[in-house]
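Hey, can you fold this one?
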Amino acid sequence: MSFSRLGVIVFLGALVAVSTGCEAYSRILSRKDVVDGSTAYKERKFAEAESLFRQAAARDPEGKTEEGKIAQLFLARTLHSRYIGNRTERSLAEQAIAEYKKALQNDPNEQSAYKAVASLLDTPELQNEWRAWVTERANNEGIRSENRAEALTSLAARENTCSNEITDTEATKKPGKRDGQDVFLFVKPEKPEDLERLKQCVARGTEYADKAAGLEPPDVEAAKSLDLTALSAAELNSKHELVKIFESARSYKAAMLNQSARLAEMEERTEDAARLRTETDAARTRFNELSQLNKAFQTEKDRRLAVERDAENANANANAGK
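Sure. Predicted structure:
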């Protein structure tokens, strides 16, 4: 959670330049508070940063201006950081959640705020709240499809873990042979309630994974044919983020097919198990395609960063020689 002081100054300065009168003065004060608050935050003076962000947010409690929106989000992040420094102060987490939710009211697609709330709710005692929060996001048709897909993938991941806790044990996973190959064969757990739990986890996880995969836009497949070197930095980052989201969605699609195949084998549904293993292999191939594309994006980012560093070093050496 870091702030760029220069970026904040430039961005807010441009916004205030187009305002007039009392509104402009209020926005100038808020701009100063946000800039000073980001400096204090960077120096880990969280109490000071919190005070400054609160002042800025109080001038625009409904987040109608960009300064108000930024102050709200920065206040939430500061409270979050204070909580991370002392997790016994749960009230700080609750305050951070409230501020993040305000930011989401202003911009429902503010993904960093959504993820921050999910992180703060992801504790053993708050699992019901976490699931409710993520499920609400997954079902929100008013936000971008990739944001819904991320939430659905998070839910699928939990169900895959639930399934794996039953299928990936010495009692249910036995070395054996299939078609002459050494493989693991899957047998029912001893307790009927474990089998019933597995069925429920597989059913839910499959539903979530299918929905996430179904939200994949054509842009993901189209990204395979892009010349990454020709993309602007903004385009590269945007398309990379999209690929990463659906790489994960494809991964859990394959994972839940695999769990379905294990369950079918346990229940001696031989034809279903064989079909599901074939579908798992196909899904893994689709996942690996995006995994390779993800690596290509990262390689291009690393290449550009190396070029920038080389240019900076060359410039510094040239200046040193003067």
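DSSP finds twelve helices and two strands in the chain. Let me know if you want another pass with a different chain boundary.
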